[in-house]
UniProtKB/TrEMBL annotation:
Belongs to the LOR family. It comes from the Eukaryota. Signal peptide: none annotated. Pfam families: LOR. This is Protein LURP-one-related 17.
Length: 197
């Protein structure tokens, strides 16, 4: 399964938010400095009676979480360990052409199908019809590539240390290659889950 990413707009204001970024909890920030980052993704919310995802790093620390009370929501919010919104994914329906998803930085607020969002999206993700059969999100075996077809992230089944023990498809590994944003890679996992589950 290969996805191509289209950047719509993105502006970074380093000077304005420098002080704010210094105060952020460093355990919720993952920086890829050329090495791969391995995250364990559990397709379960930590909250009772809630759908979602829990993501931990190789040290066992909570990194990302998603908590939803609706089975197939039109909006997903990816949060860091402290509950701060990182990215918001909003489903945009097109008649007969399938869904596309718009990704916004931070939280865009409570959204319903009749409300217009004034904030500009930073990415747009579409489900392509020419999907390779060798890859499958539902089997937790797929890669995300950039425009030059270089692998930037991989979704793999979680392997147990003890042979014969299986985690199934509810627990899997997200490997993020150096230079690619792990938060956006996790957002892609959320979108894949909405598109193919």
């Amino acid at each position: 399964m290969f996805f191509f990413l289209k950047s719509l707009s993105r502006s970074v204001h380093d000077d304005i938010e420098e002080h704010h970024h210094q105060e952020q909890d460093q355990t919720s920030k993952i920086v890829t400095d050329g090495t791969c980052t391995s995250l364990t993704v559990w397709r379960k919310s930590l909250l009772v009676n809630c759908n979602g995802f829990t993501v931990i790093n190789s040290n066992g620390d909570l990194v990302y979480r998603v908590d939803n009370y609706i089975v197939r929501p039109h909006e997903l919010v990816l949060m860091d360990a402290s509950g701060k919104s990182i990215l918001t994914m909003h489903r945009k329906k097109k008649l007969g052409l399938g869904d596309s998803w718009l990704v916004y930085e931070g939280e865009v607020g409570k959204c319903c199908s009749t409300t217009r969002i004034s904030k500009k999206p930073i990415w747009s993700v579409k489900k392509h019809s020419n999907i390779l059969q060798a890859s499958s999100y539902t089997q937790r075996s797929c890669k995300v590539v950039d425009e030059s077809r270089t692998t930037v992230a991989e979704i793999k089944r979680k392997e147990a240390i003890v042979r014969g023990v299986s985690f199934g498809v509810e627990v899997f590994v997200l490997v993020v290659h150096g230079g690619f944003d792990p938060g956006f890679a996790m957002a892609l996992v959320l979108l894949l889950d909405q598109m193919f589950s």
